[in-house]
Specification:
The structure is a homodimer. Chain A has 10 helices and 8 strands. By secondary structure, chain A is α+β, with helices and mostly antiparallel strands. In chain A, helix 3 packs antiparallel against helix 5 and helix 9 crosses helix 10. Chain B binds a DNA duplex through helix 10.
Chain lengths: 198, 198
Amino acid sequence: MFTLRHVLPIMQQIQHAIRQMIMISQQEMEGLLKDCYSKTVKPKEFLSKQEQISNEIFFICKGITRSTIVDQSGVEHTIHFSLENQFVADYSSFMLKTPALNSIEAIEETEVIVMPRSAIEWGYAHLQQGDRMGRLIAEYYFIYFDNRLKNQYVFTPVQRYENISRVFPNIHNRVPQHMIASYLGISPVHLSRLKKLI
Amino acid sequence: MFTLRHVLPIMQQIQHAIRQMIMISQQEMEGLLKDCYSKTVKPKEFLSKQEQISNEIFFICKGITRSTIVDQSGVEHTIHFSLENQFVADYSSFMLKTPALNSIEAIEETEVIVMPRSAIEWGYAHLQQGDRMGRLIAEYYFIYFDNRLKNQYVFTPVQRYENISRVFPNIHNRVPQHMIASYLGISPVHLSRLKKLI
DNA sequence: TTCGTTCGTTAACATTTGTTTAGATTAATC
DNA sequence: GATTAATCTAAACAAATGTTAACGAACGAA
């Protein structure tokens, strides 16, 4: 049987990400990560599915995922891409303990650290800076969403396309174009058309 | 000169809102609110303007505001409405201390409590549950934004219009229709056209 | 009151975007 | 390697949305 000491090296990346947010002792870190484990999913496999309550937060060590939501007509929309060194979850479902509206699906082969609810709650209760960590995560995502929403109002589809390409230059090699179109809120045919005009 | 004891009655509403989020002693409450003050703005007057760093959070006691953002072509978009008993600010600007992209403008005569940055920072540093309050506020807005973004993907303009009318039935008596159109991301002429079809 | 402004509706027309279908290319699977 | 599936592009047409202009009603300021 492995002890925590043996498992930790795999956890280096997530530890680094956590230490960028808060001051945390080695002892606290071990407590926080004791229920966490790593998991690998293949392309098109799901990390979590809609209609189930999200009881896990994922930290992406390697790979890329997309979060999808299905509308009343059954059409699937890509609402986020998530990359290496980012946390991903349906946070609304996690926080409210309501059924998730999102699914999270791997695009490439993806390796994640799974943080179960028990680990997060242990953190809030026992970490000196637990609530601070929660606040910073929430604020980080708040800023991200605020930005996304403003973009929707202020930029045209072409501008949004150029913005992604700038922020995430490699995206065209890693995700199919029809998913980018879905993310932009336009049809794949139309994105192809717009590209011709640039 | 008024002491805090005299000022507090005006502050009842905001105290109630704060107590719904965290446990807070009367002494802590007085510390938190000691730099806060009330302010009344007339319709079309601004609580805060774009390009300035937001150093205040507003609590709306009475009235209604809209948050606006201007695109590259100079067109103004309404991105939020905020009502009684809600906090409003350009939180991204407040948190990052960067120039605001939003302006906040009163639609009706509006009375707010102004919470300066000093009050918020005092709260984070001295309140027993300061970070918890920060986390809950950030999480609350996170959920709000998450929802807004999903709505953009999943609902048509007509559905979004019906959703507002349901969530905020009185909106048509309180805000001009062209602002609602702007909020929905469509032209005022088109909203008028869509209404005919319902 | 009177005058000017803001607001909502309507119609006509222009532009953008979606849909369908087809074909060609590449990637994945057996 | 052969076959199937996935992906992107293209064209033609349909639907949705924007723009402009005109008009009248409601509202506010002088």
